[in-house]
Recover the amino acids of this structure.
């Protein structure tokens, strides 16, 4: 885990500019610092890391410098292709890849990374990131100086009259996510996922090097079924992310995702230290929602692991909100970030610097409910009813209403989007969220804009094209990029290198290609994961039907927060409709807790920068 940055200029950089830029990349828990300044002083690269590794590689003979942060999950294949030793550093591999493939090298690298290359031969800068943009890179061209950094705070001081980006703010309150490349600041841009940027002769060219393809169908290997193939890919990813004998942490909530990772680490012989967060001081109903003891204990028992129980009480999204606003450059929307922070603190106390996390395995694997739409779309009515009954029995004891699947999975999938828009637009999230904005302050979301942001209308039970396309839309959700960026930045603060094996590109491509019948089968969702891990995870987890609630403390804090404080924040923002807020949002704080949190953190963020609206 590192923070990285670079300045490139046509002329010698001033010492004061370099000092300010270097200072902006310092974190107390990132103890290893690498800096490279060119001989003529016209460029500087910085890489501050939690681990003592070679992160900046400079070839004086070739006049090429590489600044790399992250993990490569196909290192073995790249070393073979490039005829390199398996002991080569990632920077050396990227350097050789650049010599081999030039500006197209990013396509060949799998993993979680951001990279800056300066090629003095052509006086150009190349930056690129991974398929999800998991590690942010921000950039700005200021008076012919090109700035790039993993930190907005490293670029902002060099911009005269720093101003908010009102287009991004509008999207934040209507869609939450922004458009590709946007930040909350004018003149500071974010590199979109799976993109490479070339800065040459004071101009910028951005290109996309990869996209998931929902038209590729799974082709089984002759010697293994899809469950064995999934397990092979998953194990390879975990091994590539951790190949040392050091102790590594693993989030263990008792769900199938975290249990699969913890169990796989143990099965592969890693020195794994499970991190289990226990919520204390809750009432009986909330305790039942979060109690994972039964499932956690089953994992610990199966693999003979020692439990690292982390007890938390009376904390939540508002506990350290001032500290978080000060740390983050943009409004920090991790409403459950306090859970990660409790784990990071525990790892710090044990001198463990690596943590495996099961973030969003749901999206990569898919719950498989698109299979019901596929059966309905193809008029396989009896198969649809049989599968629906099995799913229903897994989650409810109530009598099955067989007209419901006909309505939801057959009829609705044939209704044109424009018709749905006319009848249901007032119930769509963007329009609900737009309701709290004062009239005419921001433009209302149009049909085309909603389609652009969501791929389809954000309504439940809508199926178009094919089941893989539904899965593809989930994978392309911009919330993934935003969440990964925030979690990575939070981990940086604590000096923790966090890994997300479910987010690996090869694994995501594989799961996307599978038929929907391998994602939902016999009423069991995420079927391919369950089957692949059947001998690795305990039977208690394999057969689990429920999912825990990890936000009780945030919900309680926001429910108990006096309305007058929330209204005060809204009034200070300036464009929130107080009447709508009072009559709608605050009537059900539990349901609308994210919207309330959003208002609070945005107001504190705008005050931090002294912005007015």
């Amino acid at each position: 885990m590192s923070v990285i940055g670079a300045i490139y200029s046509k002329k010698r950089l001033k010492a004061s500019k370099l000092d300010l830029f270097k200072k902006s990349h310092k974190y107390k828990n990132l103890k290893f610092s690498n800096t490279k300044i060119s001989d003529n002083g016209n460029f500087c690269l910085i890489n501050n890391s939690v681990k003592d590794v070679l992160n900046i590689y400079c070839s004086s003979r070739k006049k090429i410098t590489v600044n790399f942060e992250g993990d490569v999950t196909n290192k073995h294949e790249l070393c073979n292709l490039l005829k390199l030793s398996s002991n080569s550093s990632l920077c050396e591999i990227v350097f050789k890849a650049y010599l081999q493939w030039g500006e197209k090298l990013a396509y060949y690298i799998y993993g979680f990374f951001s990279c800056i290359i300066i090629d003095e031969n052509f006086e150009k800068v190349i930056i690129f990131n991974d398929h999800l943009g998991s590690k942010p890179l921000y950039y700005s061209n200021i008076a012919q100086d090109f700035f790039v950094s993993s930190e907005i705070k490293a670029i902002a001081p060099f911009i005269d009259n720093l101003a908010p980006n009102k287009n991004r703010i509008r999207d934040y309150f209507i869609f939450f996510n922004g458009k590709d490349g946007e930040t909350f600041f004018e003149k500071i841009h974010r590199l979109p996922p799976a993109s490479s940027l070339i800065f040459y002769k004071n101009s910028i060219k951005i290109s996309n090097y990869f996209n998931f393809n929902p038209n590729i169908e799974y082709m089984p290997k002759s010697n293994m079924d899809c469950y064995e193939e999934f397990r092979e890919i998953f194990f390879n990813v975990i091994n590539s992310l951790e190949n040392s004998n050091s102790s590594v942490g693993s989030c263990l909530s008792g769900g199938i995702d975290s249990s699969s990772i913890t169990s796989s680490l143990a099965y592969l012989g890693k020195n794994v230290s499970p991190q289990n967060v226990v919520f204390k001081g809750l009432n009986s109903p909330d305790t039942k929602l979060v109690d994972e003891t039964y499932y956690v204990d089953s994992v610990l028992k199966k693999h003979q692991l020692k439990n690292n129980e982390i007890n938390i009480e009376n904390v939540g999204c508002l506990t350290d909100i001032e500290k978080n606003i000060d740390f983050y450059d943009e409004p920090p929307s991790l409403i459950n970030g306090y859970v990660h922070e409790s784990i990071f603190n525990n790892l710090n106390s044990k001198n463990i610097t690596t943590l495996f996390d099961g973030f969003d395995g749901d999206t990569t694997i898919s719950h498989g409910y698109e299979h019901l739409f596929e059966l309905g779309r193809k008029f396989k009515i009896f198969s649809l009813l049989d599968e629906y009954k099995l799913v229903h029995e897994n989650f409810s004891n109530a009598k099955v209403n067989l007209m419901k699947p006909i309505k939801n999975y057959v009829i609705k999938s044939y209704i044109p989007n424009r018709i749905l828009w006319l009848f249901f637009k007032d119930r769509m999230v963007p329009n609900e969220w737009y309701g709290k904005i004062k009239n005419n302050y921001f433009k209302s979301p149009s049909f085309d804009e909603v389609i652009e942001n969501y791929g389809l209308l954000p309504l439940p039970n809508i199926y178009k094209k094919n089941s893989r396309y539904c899965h593809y839309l989930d994978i392309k959700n911009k919330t993934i990029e935003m969440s990964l960026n925030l979690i990575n930045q939070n981990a940086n603060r604590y000096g923790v290198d966090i890994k997300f094996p479910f987010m690996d590109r090869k694994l995501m491509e594989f799961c996307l290609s599978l038929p929907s019948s391998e994602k939902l089968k016999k009423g069991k969702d995420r079927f391919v994961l369950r089957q692949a891990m059947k001998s690795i995870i305990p039977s208690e987890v394999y057969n689990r039907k429920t999912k825990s609630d990890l936000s009780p403390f945030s919900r309680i804090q926001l429910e108990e927060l006096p309305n007058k404080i929330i209204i005060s924040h809204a009034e200070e923002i300036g464009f929130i409709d107080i009447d709508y807020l009072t009559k709608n949002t605050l009537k059900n704080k539990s349901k609308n807790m994210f919207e309330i949190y959003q208002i609070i953190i945005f107001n504190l963020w705008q005050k931090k920068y002294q912005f007015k609206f």
